[in-house]
Every structure is written in C-alpha cells, then in structure tokens.
Amino acid sequence: MNPFSYERPSDQQAALTLGARSGAKYLGGGTNLVDLMRETIEHPEMLVDVTGLSCAIEETDGGGLRIGAGVKNTAVAADRRVRERYPLLSEAILAGASAQIRNMATVGGNLLQRTRCGYFYDDAAHCNKRAPGTGCDAIDGFNRMHAILGASTACVATHPSDMAVALAALDALVTVEGHNGARDIPLIDFHVLPGETPQMETVLETGELITAVTLPPGLAGRSSYRKVRDRASYAFALISVAAALEVQDGVVKEVRIALGGVAHKPWRAKAAEAALKGGPATEAAFRAAAQAELASARGLRDNAFKIELGQRVITDTLVKLTALQEIR
Ligand SMILES: Cc1cc2nc3c(=O)[nH]c(=O)nc-3n(C[C@H](O)[C@H](O)[C@H](O)COP(=O)(O)OP(=O)(O)OC[C@H]3O[C@@H](n4cnc5c(N)ncnc54)[C@H](O)[C@@H]3O)c2cc1C
C-alpha cells in the first residue's frame, strides 16, 4: 500500500475543498476502497473521510425519503419507513455482503463500489478498466459472472451493487455536490455503460461528493428483490431482479423492473415494462416481456446460461408478486 494522508472534515464545504485536491479520494466505510488500496489497484494520496456527514434519513415534502450518503447500509435496511414503503430496497441491501460489512458500508460508497471482475483485481492480467488500453482478459477468460447486456469489446465487467438495482427500479435520484453547486442525477443515468472507456463508471466529475439518495413516494402494489447466486450468502449476483408490480382486475397498471449482475450498470428493463403495461398479468405475458428484454443479450463462453436464467427469474418474480396482490 502506498503512503497516504487521512482527513476527517467536519462539514461538507471542508470535504469538498479537500476532495478537490489532486490525489484525494472520499472514504466511506472503506470496505471496498481499502481492499483496493491493499491490492495496489487504487493509490489515493489522501483519504477524505465523509462518514460523519449526511447521516440522516428524512421525509421529503413530496412524500418520499431522502437518505443521506453517509447512512450505513444496515441502517437503511432496518429503517421502518424503508421496510414498509420500499421493501425491495431493504431486501436488496440484506441480500448483499455480510452483517459486518453492511454495518460499515455507506450509501455513497455502495453506489461507487468497483466491479468484482477477477481480472480487474489481478494486476498481472490485461484490464482496460484498471489500465486503459491494455485489453480485456475476461472476454476470452473465465467469465461466468460477466455482462450479457450493454457490454463492449473493451469491457464485460458487471456492477456488483444489489442496493443500486433496487434504487434503479424505484426511480431514485442521486444528489451530488461540487464546487459548481448541487445536482440531482437519476440513478439510472448515474452509472454508465463501458463503451471504449470502461475506466469511466459514472457521470460524477472530479471532486464531486454524493450527499444523498432521494426516493419518490412508494409505489402501490407489491415489490421484491430476488438474487440468484452461487452460494446462499456472501456472494455477488449472477442475476438479480428488483421488481414492483401493481395489478388491477387482472391488468398490469404499473410495473418497474431492474436487473443486476447483467451489465456494467444497474439495468432498467424498459422493454419488459413497455410490453407489460396495460396488458394481462399472466405468466405467459411475463415470460414474453422477459424475452423481449433479453432479446439483445449476448453470452460469452461461461455466462450464456444467464440469458435463460434472467428470463426465468423475471417471470417467476412477477408471478409471485401477482399472487401476493391477490391475497392482500
Ligand atoms: C466480502 C465482501 C462481500 C460483498 N458482497 C456484496 C454483495 O453481495 N452485494 C453488494 O452489493 N455488495 C457487496 N459487497 C460490497 C460492499 O457493499 C461495498 O464494499 C460497500 O457498499 C462499499 O461502501 P463503503 O462505504 O465501504 O465504500 P468505500 O469502500 O469507503 O468507498 C467506495 C468508493 O466510493 C467512494 N465514496 C464513498 N463515499 C462517497 C461519497 N459520499 N461521495 C463520493 N464518493 C464516495 C470512495 O472514494 C470509493 O471510490 C461486498 C464486499 C465485501 C468485502
């Protein structure tokens, strides 16, 4: 690990001033960044600890919730308002990592955690994300966990966050502060596809600080988060589905679907949503919508199974949400 300095600013303005310095990085719970420093993948010269800032969950005027970027993952998952109004978010967080890691990890850090592609962590491997222009060993390598949607010839890594997938389905906004002021970015536009520049993972500008995530008012109907993985705990998603569904008289009134484990960013399933809205809430319709969403998916040597798996998990999740509405 390289030498670095550590600062713990007492307010946001001081954090922004320090964060704008060359070589500075914000520090949340450190559960990803410190690992990357130990592995010499990241080498910040200064850590700006922001865990003491933006630590509240508050009601918004519009009936939603504003979750500070410094709130721990455990606190979000356990918050009664989150559990009652946004159960898929609570379920998504609890499906990730371990209790100890969730106790340390923050909302801001969770959004910015780096990919779990093994070639990114191996500095003997070619990786355009870690070392732009060197190639991608995952494309012809061991790629069971890798992307089937939106990948490029430069990178097939996936985004690992469970929480971010639920936030994508919820139409959450990410608030960021920089020296030019604050801006709200829809979560679904916050992370980007790899294209030719997989080292660029978000639309954040240098020195910008995530301060909050805002959830719009909760949806009517039912929602849930399903995560399929190789082990029952402590494993990243092969496929995950965050879904919210409102059915009236057998017709889909509102539906939101986002997928994890399939792309460089949380994947909002717009094609499936469009196919379902206003149509029958039947298993056949759910299956057809899932097929429409994954029509553009491309498998690699080890991960082509995810295409069928994704269709099955979307279909099954919607079938179960429909059944839950019927017994309400
Ligand atoms: C063994 C293990 C298993 C895991 N399993 C899962 C899993 O199944 N699912 C899952 O979703 N996650 C999993 N994780 C990842 C875990 O969720 C992340 O490590 C955690 O959410 C990162 O949060 P943090 O606060 O510790 O971030 P840090 O490690 O402190 O920071 C991560 C990044 O965010 C930046 N950052 C932090 N806060 C801010 C801010 N406010 N503004 C701007 N930049 C900021 C940092 O500079 C850094 O680049 C696992 C981690 C481990 C170690």
TrEMBL record:
Any keyword Flavoprotein? yes
SUPFAM superfamilies recorded = CO dehydrogenase flavoprotein C-terminal domain-like (SSF55447), FAD-binding/transporter-associated domain-like (SSF56176)
Coiled-coil boundaries = none
Keywords for this protein: FAD, Flavoprotein
Gene Ontology molecular-function annotations: FAD binding; oxidoreductase activity
Give start and end of each FAD-binding PCMH-type domain: 1-220
One Pfam family from the record: CO_deh_flav_C
**Which PANTHER family does the record match to this protein?**
OXIDOREDUCTASE (PTHR42659:SF1), XANTHINE DEHYDROGENASE SUBUNIT C-RELATED (PTHR42659)
Q: What is this protein called?
A: Xanthine dehydrogenase family protein subunit M
